[in-house]
Every structure is written in C-alpha cells, then in structure tokens.
Amino acid sequence: MTLTRTLIAGASAAALLAAPLAATAQGQELPQELSALGLEDVRDHRDGDDDREIRASLAGTAFEVEYDDGRIEEVKAAPGAPLPQAVLEALVPSEALSRAADMGIGDIVQVEFDDDGEIEIIGTDGDGPVEVTIAASGQMLEFERRDDARRGPPDHATRHGLAEEDVRRIAAEAGYGDVDWIEIRPNHVEFDATNPDGENVEVRLNREGQVVREERR
C-alpha cells in the first residue's frame, strides 16, 4: 500500500514534514533487459505490493520503467524529451516499433504494455501528437490523434505562473533536495524529490506554490 501524507496549504512545510515515513524499499539487480544499456543515475523503488519502478538516465535523457509482478507495465520519458532509441529497442517488440515507424510516428514519449499483449505508443507524427495501439505482431489496432501531448499542457493552458526555476526555489525553501521530474500542469505542479527526512517522495504544489501533498515513492 502506498503511504501518503496530505499537507495543509499555506502551512510551514518544514513543520508539517516532521513525522518520519517508512524507508523506501530498494531494488536489487536490474532486470536483464536494462542491465546491458549502461544506465546512469539509477533509482530502484518498490511499493508495498512489490511493484517496481526504476528511474534512470541514458545519454542525458531521464526515463522510468514500471513493473507489475515482474512484467513491464509502462515506460515513459521525463517531461520534455522522447525516450532514448536504445531503451525502446530493448523493451518494445521490434514489430511494434517497425509499425510505428511505418506510420511516421517518432519522438515516442510513453509506451504501455497491456496484459493481452497490446502495446500503446504515444508519440508524434507530421501533424502532431498521436496515440496508437499495436498488437505484438505489429498489426495496428487503434489510432487516435491528440490535441495536446500527454506529457503536459501547452503554455497557454497553464493557469498559474510557476516556472521550473520557481518550483526549484520553493522546493529548496521547504527543505526538499534532489528535485527532478518536474511536471507543470494547468492547476498544479508535481515533482520528485528527497524530503527533509531523506525519503524519496512525490510532491504537489497548488497554483499558489504551496505544498499540498507529499507521497512516498
């Protein structure tokens, strides 16, 4: 079970974070499909259900892979960058990648793997963001053109003035370190960090830049 701490908007983050959380469980060896990639900045987390989340960087691009009971469930890039090609080739069946390439889909930012073998790929073609569902055999099952990328809203849709430098400043003032994976949404901002107790957490800021939620990863 995921341990969640909900904070009161406007209150002192340092005071509200005084109660310690349980230490984050660390993974052991990397799965075979990732071990040969020469990954950097690897962070391996497990939740209470023993699901696994691995975050790492390759050639300067951050990404994460989620496992459910040993099966790859999702791989996605950090906001603002596509998934490295080497990661795609290591995790996604070549038939699915070939089909996506034949359709002119590139800059893939997210891939989801369904229990039935279907693969959902989010990327862009010549006309903008798209989502396509492909069978493991390479057969295209569904195609959807998206008005905006799943990785975040366009600038004009953001209903607050928080930029990345603001988020980093607010996080530092609240005692958070190792801030990364910043996602700016229309009504809030989320980021990963280490809290004052040294635990790996996901943090949410409201439109006023107040810490309103912290969840252990």
Characterization of the model:
- With 217 residues, this protein is an alpha+beta fold.
- The chain folds into two domains: 4-22 and 154-216, no CATH class; 25-145, Inhibitor of vertebrate lysozyme, Ivy (3-Layer(aba) Sandwich), CATH 3.40.1420.30.
- It has five helices and 14 strands.
- The strands form two sheets. A nine-stranded antiparallel beta sheet has the order 2-3-4-5-6-7-8-9-10, covered by helices on one side. A five-stranded antiparallel beta sheet has the order 1-14-13-12-11, covered by helices on one side.
- A hairpin with a 2-residue loop joins strand 8 and strand 9 (128-134).
Order of helices and strands: EHEHEEEEHHEEEEHEEEE
Helix content: 10-25%
State the helix count.
5
- CATH class of the largest domain, named Alpha Beta
CATH topology of the largest domain: Inhibitor of vertebrate lysozyme, Ivy
**How large, in whole angstroms, is the Cα Rg?**
18 Å
Strand content: 35-45%
Described by the principal axes of the CA atoms, the overall outline is globular
- Unreliable spans: 1-27, 148-157
Structural class: alpha+beta
What's the number of domains? Answer: 2
Arithmetic mean of pLDDT: 79
Strand count, sense and barrel status of the largest sheet are: 9 strands, antiparallel
If strands are numbered along the chain, what order do they take across the biggest sheet? 2-3-4-5-6-7-8-9-10
Distance from first to last alpha carbon: 11 Å
Looking at how many chains there are and whether they match, the oligomeric state comes to single chain
CATH architecture of the largest domain: 3-Layer(aba) Sandwich
Give the number of DSSP strands: 14
Signal peptide: 1-25
Keywords: Signal
